[in-house]
Each structure stands twice: as structure tokens, then as C-alpha cells.
Design brief:
Layout lengths: L20 H29 L2 H4 L9 H23 L8 H23 L1 H4 L1 H28 L1 H27 L2
Length: 182
């Protein structure tokens, strides 16, 4: 009598179970920190959006101003959830590199608005070129972050993809302003 042996089932990575109450608190903190970064960016930009920014010719692919708030709000939620999913894997995998990349890109993200909007009246088009440099560093850090997130939790990396696409789009706007502004 012959026995049929099934091929081995590939191991699947174990995932963290249902979130515990303390883990929900971490998600809340991540959401709050990202909301704070968004509020900071809005605060340093507000007067300039109605000031010098409104008075310069805009590239034809610039959306209405309200679109930026809606898109960024959504992206900050996605980024927070992605970082939280990675953080939840901390007992199973080394996540320190992934979370360090997350922090680096958030710092770069928070620098862009003050450099682009608030520095322009003081240093002119140099501010837009500096903002473009920040965009390039941000994109590099996003590539690292997405790669590290992919190794820890693929869903987290996928959640960050729209953010990377938006940063590329925003960089194209920064290039356009840098080229045309005096």
C-alpha cells in the first residue's frame, strides 16, 4: 500500500494577534503626532498661501488648495497605520531600522513647509531649491522606509505607496516653482 505524501506547506509568517488596549494607544499616539506635524505645516504655510504663493503663476497641474488638506489628511492616517503595523511586529522581527526610517522621513516631511513657504519671503527662490532638496531626501528616505516596511509587514509598505506617489507629484510642483520664481 502506498501512501501519498503532500508537499510541505510553506511557512507563513506569524502575525501579531488582535491588538491589545495598549497597542491601540500607540496607534492613537502615532495619529496624534502626525496630526501635529500636519498642524505645524499648516500653521507655517497659511499666511504665505494667501500671500506670496497666491501671487505667483501656478503650474497648470496644481490642484485647488483644499485638495492638499484632504490628501495630506488621508496620507497621514495611512502613514500612521503603516508605522503601527510595523511596530506591532516588534516582538517577532527587528523593526528598529524600519521605524528609524519612518522617523527620518517624518522629520524631512515636517521641514518642507517651513522651508518652501516661510523662507521664500526671506531668501527668494533659494527656498524653493532647498525645498526640492528636502523632497529628494524625503523620497530617498521613503524608498528605504518602504523597503524596510516590506521586510517586516508588506501591508505597511503598500499603505505607504500613495504617500510616495504624492511626494513625487509634490516634488514636480516644487521644481516648477523653483524654475519660475525669482
Amino acid at each position: 500500500m502506498s501512501t501519498i505524501v503532500a508537499p510541505p506547506v510553506p511557512e507563513t509568517r506569524a502575525r501579531a494577534g488582535a491588538p491589545r488596549p495598549g497597542e491601540w494607544l500607540v496607534l492613537g499616539v502615532l495619529l496624534a503626532v502626525n496630526a501635529g506635524i500636519a498642524a505645524f505645516g499648516s500653521a507655517v504655510s497659511r499666511e504665505h498661501i494667501d500671500g506670496w504663493y497666491a501671487s505667483v503663476p501656478a503650474p497648470i497641474w496644481v490642484p485647488e488648495n483644499w485638495v492638499f488638506g484632504a490628501v495630506w489628511s488621508t496620507l497621514y492616517v495611512l502613514i500612521s497605520v503603516a508605522a503601527w503595523l510595523v511596530w506591532r511586529e516588534r516582538r517577532r522581527r527587528r523593526v528598529s531600522t524600519a521605524l528609524t526610517a519612518y522617523v527620518v522621513q517624518m522629520v524631512l516631511n515636517s521641514l518642507w513647509s517651513p522651508v518652501f513657504f516661510a523662507l521664500y519671503p526671506a531668501i527668494g527662490s533659494l527656498a524653493t531649491w532647498l525645498a526640492l532638496g528636502i523632497h529628494m531626501l524625503l523620497l530617498l528616505s521613503l524608498v528605504v522606509m518602504m523597503s524596510e516596511f516590506w521586510q517586516v509587514r508588506r501591508t505597511a509598505s503598500i499603505l505607504v505607496a500613495p504617500y510616495a506617489l504624492w511626494v513625487i507629484y509634490a516634488a514636480s510642483l516644487t521644481v516648477a516653482y523653483a524654475v519660475v520664481l525669482p
